[in-house]
């Protein structure tokens, strides 16, 4: 069900993974952070995480370099959801402050707000945005790491994060199956 704007099944699977780990997402500090990638990827997954986390009442922090803003309409919708659910949405152009105390760190590459941000040197210019153990140590001691997969290892996320106990990417992928199965059951019945 991914569109150019949203990927609702992924967003629900992401929050299901967080709730499996922590019991509830309400009031939970979570970070959605941009990650470097060699291609300009669509914004459907980060948009859906933003909307779903806001609707579930998370204390959501969105971090991205300047020029990689999410669409204002999606941001406005997320702010409405957060206000209704008791959550919050804040934005950072520096990654480290957004990670402090986060219980879940979700990294996802997405393209620039305008075509002027494209170029083969995006990864090189923003290499320090790749999530590493150093980044995860800024989060809460029991923080988990999420990514929708597939992932470019050691470009978006360091192997040392994906292959360590922080990572819940396999659980998250399994939850996509359960979310989609439940959705099909609901639609057909």
Describe the structure in your own words.
There is one protein chain. The chain has 189 residues and is an alpha/beta fold. The protein has a single domain, classed as Aspartate/ornithine carbamoyltransferase (Rossmann fold, 3-Layer(aba) Sandwich). Helices cover 41% and strands 13% of the residues. The chain contains 8 helices and 5 strands. A 5-stranded parallel sheet has the order 3-2-1-4-5. α3 (72-85) links the parallel β2 and β3. α1 crosses α2 (44-55), α1 crosses α8 (169-188) and α2 runs parallel beside α3 (72-85). It is globular and about 50 Å long. The model has no long low-confidence stretch (mean pLDDT 94).
Q: Indicate the low-confidence ranges by residue numbers.
A: none
Order of helices and strands: HEHEHEHEHHEHH
| Helix residue percentage | 40-55%
CATH topology: Rossmann fold
| Tally of domains | 1
DSSP strand tally: 5
The top-level CATH class is Alpha Beta
Q: What's the rounded overall pLDDT mean?
A: 94
Reported CATH architecture: 3-Layer(aba) Sandwich
Total of DSSP H or I helical runs spanning 4+ residues: 8
Largest sheet data: 5 strands, parallel
CATH-defined superfamily:
Aspartate/ornithine carbamoyltransferase
Terminal-residue CA separation: 19 Å
Shape: globular
